[in-house]
Amino acid sequence: MTETGPSSPLTSGKRASEQPSEQPSEGSPVFRAIMGVAGRPFNAFVLRFAGSGYLRLYGVVHHRGRRSGRTYMTPVVVRPTADGFVIPLAFGERADWFQNVHAAGGCEIRWNGTTYTVVDPVVIDWPTARQAFSPLERIVAPLVGIERYLRVRRADAGDPGSDVRVSSQTPVGAYKTPITSSHS
Fold it and tell me: Within 24-155, where are the H helices?
């Protein structure tokens, strides 16, 4: 199990590219089992509605393959914050979409009918991410075993050193997490 104390890289607010070379998260075994059986039909169904106002839990990550250069669309759970989004890494840091976003330093996210350009991908832990989730989601997320999350900042959000506060679109209070200002 990965350490998540105050000096842990998961809570340090470092960009994904600045994390020490530790074992990447494998993601939730529950999600891996379900999606191993129903992945393609589920993704096809969710892609029809993700990113629209009809299925607000899901957004679509538009990313470019780091080796192929092809563009991809991946449906993911997306929770808004005041300056960007938090995305559960249900399949861990080895998921292709995460690797592509990490390599590019950002992507586009379509959520609630709007496309956002996002930058500065940062891997965070559950105690840091939980503020972006509703009370019901706060109960479910730990039960399915998701331990790491990706935080991205909207490109138009301004100073990356400013406090991160939860959006008015989520029914929870504010939280602060430092974000380093150096780029790799």
Answer: 29-49, 96-104, 126-129, 135-144
What's the chain's average pLDDT?
74
Alpha carbons 12 and 10: distance in angstroms, whole number: 6
Residue pair 118/154 in contact by the 8 Å Cβ criterion? yes
- Confidence band (pLDDT; 50, 70, 90) for 56? confident
Q: Give residue-wise pLDDT tens across range 141-164.
A: 888 888 899 999 999 986 554 444
Say how far apart CA 20 and CA 35 lie, in whole Å: 29
Cα separation, 60 vs 78, whole angstroms: 8
How far apart are alpha carbons 79 and 81 in whole angstroms?
7
CATH assignment of the domain containing 99? 2.30.110.10
Q: Which among 100, 116, 128, 107 is positioned nearest to 14, based on CA atoms?
A: 128
Enter the pTM of the model.
0.67
Q: Which domain holds residue 21?
A: 16-154
The rounded distance, in Å, linking the Cα atoms of 111 and 113 is 5
88 vs 41, higher pLDDT: 88
Q: How many domains does the chain have?
A: 1
Residue 6 lies in a domain: no
The answer to whether the Cα torsion of 104, 121, 40, 77 is positive or negative is negative
Spatial distance between the Cα atoms of 146 and 125, rounded to a whole number of angstroms: 9
